[in-house]
Amino acid sequence: MKTILMALAIFASVILLGSAIALGPVNRAYAHTFQGSENVEFLTMVQQIKVETSLAGNNTSDKEVANHHMEHAAEALTNSTLKEIAEKNKRIATDLPSSIEQLKTAIDSGASADEVKQDVQAVSDLLDEAVQIRIEKSQVDNSTIQAAVVANLVNEALEHYGEAVGFEGNMTDMSAMQSENSSMQGNTTTTSTVVSVPNYQSSLAFAEKAQELYQQIKSKALSGTDNAVTGLDGAFPSFVNAIKGKASPMDIMEIAHTKIHPNLITAYNLQVAS
Protein backbone atom coordinates (compact mmCIF):
# COMPACT_ATOMS: atom_id res chain seq x y z
CA MET A 1 0.00 0.00 0.00
CA LYS A 2 2.87 2.36 0.82
CA THR A 3 4.34 1.76 -2.64
CA ILE A 4 1.00 2.58 -4.28
CA LEU A 5 0.62 5.83 -2.36
CA MET A 6 4.17 6.88 -3.22
CA ALA A 7 3.55 6.15 -6.90
CA LEU A 8 0.37 8.19 -6.86
CA ALA A 9 2.17 11.13 -5.28
CA ILE A 10 4.97 11.03 -7.82
CA PHE A 11 2.65 10.95 -10.79
CA ALA A 12 -0.13 13.17 -9.45
CA SER A 13 0.75 16.23 -11.51
CA VAL A 14 1.16 14.17 -14.65
CA ILE A 15 -2.13 12.38 -14.13
CA LEU A 16 -4.00 15.67 -13.91
CA LEU A 17 -2.80 16.36 -17.42
CA GLY A 18 -3.58 12.79 -18.40
CA SER A 19 -7.21 13.22 -17.37
CA ALA A 20 -7.56 15.69 -20.20
CA ILE A 21 -5.61 13.67 -22.75
CA ALA A 22 -7.07 13.40 -26.18
CA LEU A 23 -7.99 9.78 -26.31
CA GLY A 24 -10.89 10.33 -28.64
CA PRO A 25 -14.55 9.64 -27.84
CA VAL A 26 -15.25 6.03 -28.70
CA ASN A 27 -18.50 4.48 -27.44
CA ARG A 28 -17.58 5.46 -23.91
CA ALA A 29 -16.21 8.89 -23.02
CA TYR A 30 -12.83 8.46 -21.35
CA ALA A 31 -11.54 12.01 -21.33
CA HIS A 32 -11.39 15.17 -23.35
CA THR A 33 -10.55 15.28 -27.03
CA PHE A 34 -7.43 16.48 -28.80
CA GLN A 35 -6.32 17.38 -32.28
CA GLY A 36 -6.90 14.44 -34.61
CA SER A 37 -9.42 12.84 -32.28
CA GLU A 38 -11.81 11.85 -35.10
CA ASN A 39 -9.09 9.68 -36.57
CA VAL A 40 -8.29 8.29 -33.13
CA GLU A 41 -11.96 7.47 -32.64
CA PHE A 42 -12.18 5.68 -35.97
CA LEU A 43 -8.99 3.68 -35.52
CA THR A 44 -10.02 2.69 -32.00
CA MET A 45 -13.38 1.52 -33.33
CA VAL A 46 -11.57 -0.63 -35.89
CA GLN A 47 -9.56 -2.32 -33.14
CA GLN A 48 -12.66 -2.79 -31.00
CA ILE A 49 -14.46 -4.67 -33.75
CA LYS A 50 -11.41 -6.72 -34.70
CA VAL A 51 -10.80 -7.79 -31.11
CA GLU A 52 -14.42 -8.64 -30.36
CA THR A 53 -15.09 -10.54 -33.60
CA SER A 54 -11.87 -12.50 -33.12
CA LEU A 55 -12.96 -13.43 -29.60
CA ALA A 56 -16.37 -14.44 -30.92
CA GLY A 57 -14.73 -16.69 -33.48
CA ASN A 58 -12.61 -18.30 -30.79
CA ASN A 59 -15.62 -19.08 -28.59
CA THR A 60 -17.95 -20.91 -30.96
CA SER A 61 -18.26 -23.76 -28.45
CA ASP A 62 -20.06 -21.36 -26.10
CA LYS A 63 -22.60 -19.39 -28.12
CA GLU A 64 -23.59 -17.22 -25.17
CA VAL A 65 -20.02 -15.98 -24.78
CA ALA A 66 -19.56 -15.65 -28.54
CA ASN A 67 -22.76 -13.63 -28.92
CA HIS A 68 -21.69 -11.34 -26.08
CA HIS A 69 -18.59 -10.47 -28.11
CA MET A 70 -20.66 -10.04 -31.28
CA GLU A 71 -22.95 -7.60 -29.47
CA HIS A 72 -19.96 -5.47 -28.50
CA ALA A 73 -18.64 -5.58 -32.05
CA ALA A 74 -21.99 -4.47 -33.47
CA GLU A 75 -22.32 -1.68 -30.90
CA ALA A 76 -18.95 -0.25 -31.92
CA LEU A 77 -20.12 0.29 -35.50
CA THR A 78 -22.48 3.26 -35.22
CA ASN A 79 -24.79 4.70 -37.87
CA SER A 80 -22.79 7.92 -37.93
CA THR A 81 -19.62 5.97 -38.66
CA LEU A 82 -21.33 4.06 -41.47
CA LYS A 83 -22.51 7.37 -42.91
CA GLU A 84 -18.92 8.65 -42.91
CA ILE A 85 -17.74 5.50 -44.67
CA ALA A 86 -20.57 5.69 -47.21
CA GLU A 87 -19.46 9.18 -48.21
CA LYS A 88 -16.19 7.62 -49.34
CA ASN A 89 -17.32 4.15 -50.43
CA LYS A 90 -20.91 2.90 -50.36
CA ARG A 91 -19.91 -0.72 -50.95
CA ILE A 92 -17.83 -0.89 -47.78
CA ALA A 93 -20.56 0.86 -45.80
CA THR A 94 -23.01 -1.80 -46.96
CA ASP A 95 -20.74 -4.83 -46.73
CA LEU A 96 -19.27 -4.12 -43.29
CA PRO A 97 -22.45 -4.46 -41.18
CA SER A 98 -23.54 -7.34 -43.43
CA SER A 99 -20.26 -9.16 -42.78
CA ILE A 100 -20.69 -8.75 -39.02
CA GLU A 101 -24.21 -10.15 -39.27
CA GLN A 102 -22.93 -13.01 -41.43
CA LEU A 103 -20.38 -13.90 -38.77
CA LYS A 104 -23.08 -13.93 -36.09
CA THR A 105 -25.26 -16.15 -38.27
CA ALA A 106 -22.36 -18.54 -38.86
CA ILE A 107 -21.73 -18.85 -35.12
CA ASP A 108 -25.43 -19.30 -34.28
CA SER A 109 -25.89 -21.95 -36.97
CA GLY A 110 -22.91 -24.01 -35.83
CA ALA A 111 -20.80 -23.41 -38.94
CA SER A 112 -17.41 -25.10 -39.14
CA ALA A 113 -14.35 -23.52 -37.55
CA ASP A 114 -12.92 -22.79 -41.01
CA GLU A 115 -16.09 -21.02 -42.11
CA VAL A 116 -16.16 -18.90 -38.97
CA LYS A 117 -12.48 -18.07 -39.39
CA GLN A 118 -13.14 -16.92 -42.96
CA ASP A 119 -16.00 -14.71 -41.80
CA VAL A 120 -13.82 -13.17 -39.07
CA GLN A 121 -11.15 -12.43 -41.68
CA ALA A 122 -13.75 -10.91 -44.01
CA VAL A 123 -14.74 -8.42 -41.30
CA SER A 124 -11.09 -7.58 -40.65
CA ASP A 125 -10.38 -7.05 -44.36
CA LEU A 126 -13.35 -4.70 -44.74
CA LEU A 127 -12.20 -2.71 -41.71
CA ASP A 128 -8.76 -2.34 -43.29
CA GLU A 129 -10.40 -1.10 -46.47
CA ALA A 130 -12.46 1.37 -44.46
CA VAL A 131 -9.31 2.78 -42.88
CA GLN A 132 -7.69 3.20 -46.29
CA ILE A 133 -10.58 5.21 -47.72
CA ARG A 134 -11.40 7.10 -44.52
CA ILE A 135 -7.99 8.22 -43.20
CA GLU A 136 -4.91 9.48 -45.02
CA LYS A 137 -1.90 7.20 -44.66
CA SER A 138 0.15 9.98 -43.07
CA GLN A 139 -2.44 10.15 -40.30
CA VAL A 140 -2.61 6.39 -39.88
CA ASP A 141 1.18 6.34 -39.49
CA ASN A 142 1.25 9.34 -37.15
CA SER A 143 2.82 8.19 -33.87
CA THR A 144 0.78 10.58 -31.72
CA ILE A 145 -2.47 9.28 -33.19
CA GLN A 146 -1.28 5.70 -32.82
CA ALA A 147 -0.30 6.33 -29.19
CA ALA A 148 -3.74 7.77 -28.45
CA VAL A 149 -5.32 4.62 -29.88
CA VAL A 150 -3.07 2.57 -27.59
CA ALA A 151 -4.24 4.66 -24.64
CA ASN A 152 -7.86 4.08 -25.63
CA LEU A 153 -7.32 0.33 -25.76
CA VAL A 154 -5.84 0.43 -22.28
CA ASN A 155 -9.06 2.13 -21.17
CA GLU A 156 -11.07 -0.56 -22.94
CA ALA A 157 -9.15 -3.16 -20.96
CA LEU A 158 -9.84 -1.27 -17.73
CA GLU A 159 -13.55 -0.90 -18.35
CA HIS A 160 -14.03 -4.53 -19.31
CA TYR A 161 -12.00 -5.67 -16.30
CA GLY A 162 -14.25 -3.67 -14.01
CA GLU A 163 -17.28 -5.37 -15.53
CA ALA A 164 -15.54 -8.75 -15.39
CA VAL A 165 -14.93 -8.62 -11.64
CA GLY A 166 -18.02 -6.63 -10.64
CA PHE A 167 -16.09 -3.49 -9.69
CA GLU A 168 -18.48 -0.79 -8.49
CA GLY A 169 -16.96 2.20 -10.19
CA ASN A 170 -15.30 3.37 -13.38
CA MET A 171 -11.79 2.00 -13.63
CA THR A 172 -10.95 4.50 -16.37
CA ASP A 173 -11.49 7.30 -13.83
CA MET A 174 -8.55 8.18 -11.59
CA SER A 175 -10.88 9.01 -8.69
CA ALA A 176 -11.89 5.34 -8.57
CA MET A 177 -8.41 4.60 -7.23
CA GLN A 178 -9.09 6.66 -4.12
CA SER A 179 -12.36 4.89 -3.34
CA GLU A 180 -10.81 1.49 -4.03
CA ASN A 181 -7.84 2.37 -1.84
CA SER A 182 -10.19 3.19 1.03
CA SER A 183 -12.22 0.01 0.58
CA MET A 184 -9.05 -2.10 0.62
CA GLN A 185 -7.99 -0.93 4.08
CA GLY A 186 -7.51 -4.09 6.15
CA ASN A 187 -8.30 -6.33 3.18
CA THR A 188 -5.44 -8.70 2.35
CA THR A 189 -7.11 -10.16 -0.77
CA THR A 190 -4.88 -9.56 -3.80
CA THR A 191 -6.85 -11.38 -6.49
CA SER A 192 -10.29 -10.87 -7.99
CA THR A 193 -13.13 -13.25 -8.77
CA VAL A 194 -14.34 -13.19 -12.36
CA VAL A 195 -18.12 -12.86 -12.60
CA SER A 196 -18.26 -12.25 -16.37
CA VAL A 197 -16.10 -14.45 -18.58
CA PRO A 198 -16.75 -12.51 -21.83
CA ASN A 199 -15.71 -9.22 -20.24
CA TYR A 200 -12.61 -10.84 -18.76
CA GLN A 201 -11.67 -12.18 -22.19
CA SER A 202 -12.18 -8.73 -23.70
CA SER A 203 -10.10 -7.06 -21.00
CA LEU A 204 -7.15 -9.36 -21.59
CA ALA A 205 -7.46 -9.14 -25.38
CA PHE A 206 -7.51 -5.32 -25.35
CA ALA A 207 -4.52 -5.22 -23.01
CA GLU A 208 -2.58 -7.55 -25.31
CA LYS A 209 -3.59 -5.53 -28.38
CA ALA A 210 -2.47 -2.30 -26.69
CA GLN A 211 0.89 -3.89 -25.92
CA GLU A 212 1.20 -5.14 -29.50
CA LEU A 213 0.45 -1.72 -30.99
CA TYR A 214 2.84 -0.04 -28.56
CA GLN A 215 5.64 -2.29 -29.77
CA GLN A 216 4.90 -1.12 -33.32
CA ILE A 217 5.36 2.55 -32.39
CA LYS A 218 8.09 2.15 -29.79
CA SER A 219 10.81 3.31 -32.19
CA LYS A 220 8.80 6.47 -32.96
CA ALA A 221 9.03 7.87 -29.44
CA LEU A 222 10.28 11.44 -29.18
CA SER A 223 13.98 12.04 -28.76
CA GLY A 224 14.97 12.46 -25.13
CA THR A 225 12.12 10.35 -23.75
CA ASP A 226 14.13 7.21 -23.04
CA ASN A 227 12.92 7.07 -19.44
CA ALA A 228 9.29 7.11 -20.57
CA VAL A 229 9.96 4.34 -23.09
CA THR A 230 11.70 2.27 -20.44
CA GLY A 231 8.69 2.80 -18.20
CA LEU A 232 6.34 1.62 -20.93
CA ASP A 233 8.53 -1.39 -21.67
CA GLY A 234 7.96 -2.56 -18.12
CA ALA A 235 4.40 -1.34 -17.67
CA PHE A 236 2.73 -3.14 -20.56
CA PRO A 237 3.88 -6.66 -19.59
CA SER A 238 2.92 -5.87 -15.99
CA PHE A 239 -0.52 -4.73 -17.14
CA VAL A 240 -1.15 -7.87 -19.18
CA ASN A 241 0.17 -10.17 -16.46
CA ALA A 242 -1.90 -8.43 -13.79
CA ILE A 243 -5.05 -9.11 -15.79
CA LYS A 244 -3.98 -12.71 -16.43
CA GLY A 245 -3.39 -13.11 -12.70
CA LYS A 246 -6.79 -11.54 -11.87
CA ALA A 247 -5.14 -8.86 -9.75
CA SER A 248 -7.16 -6.41 -7.70
CA PRO A 249 -8.72 -3.47 -9.59
CA MET A 250 -6.47 -1.15 -7.56
CA ASP A 251 -3.30 -2.87 -8.77
CA ILE A 252 -4.46 -2.78 -12.38
CA MET A 253 -5.57 0.86 -12.22
CA GLU A 254 -2.23 1.80 -10.69
CA ILE A 255 -0.34 0.38 -13.67
CA ALA A 256 -2.60 2.04 -16.23
CA HIS A 257 -2.97 5.44 -14.60
CA THR A 258 0.49 5.95 -13.13
CA LYS A 259 2.76 4.00 -15.49
CA ILE A 260 1.17 3.70 -18.93
CA HIS A 261 -0.82 6.85 -19.66
CA PRO A 262 1.69 9.38 -18.23
CA ASN A 263 4.55 7.80 -20.16
CA LEU A 264 2.50 7.73 -23.37
CA ILE A 265 1.89 11.46 -22.92
CA THR A 266 5.61 12.09 -22.56
CA ALA A 267 6.90 9.74 -25.24
CA TYR A 268 4.40 10.64 -27.97
CA ASN A 269 3.46 14.24 -27.22
CA LEU A 270 -0.25 13.64 -26.70
CA GLN A 271 -1.79 17.10 -26.71
CA VAL A 272 -4.83 18.43 -24.90
CA ALA A 273 -7.34 20.18 -27.16
CA SER A 274 -7.87 23.88 -26.66
Task: Report the strand count.
Answer: 0
Count of helical regions: 12
Into which percentage range does the β-strand content fall? under 5%
Main beta-sheet strand count, sense and barrel state: none
Overall form: globular
What is the percent of helical residues?
A: over 70%
Strand-and-helix sequence, N→C? HHHHHHHHHHHH
Structural class: mainly alpha
In short:
The protein is mainly alpha-helical and 274 residues long. 73% of the residues lie in helices and 0% in strands. It has helices spanning 2-18, 37-57, 63-76, 79-88, 90-108, 113-134, 137-140, 143-165, 175-183, 197-217, 226-244, 249-268.
How does this structure look, described?
With 274 residues, this protein is an all-alpha fold. The protein has 2 domains: 2-35 and 142-268, no CATH class; 41-139, Up-down Bundle (Four Helix Bundle (Hemerythrin (Met), subunit A)). It has helices at 2-18, 37-57, 63-76, 79-88, 90-108, 113-134, 137-140, 143-165, 175-183, 197-217, 226-244, 249-268.
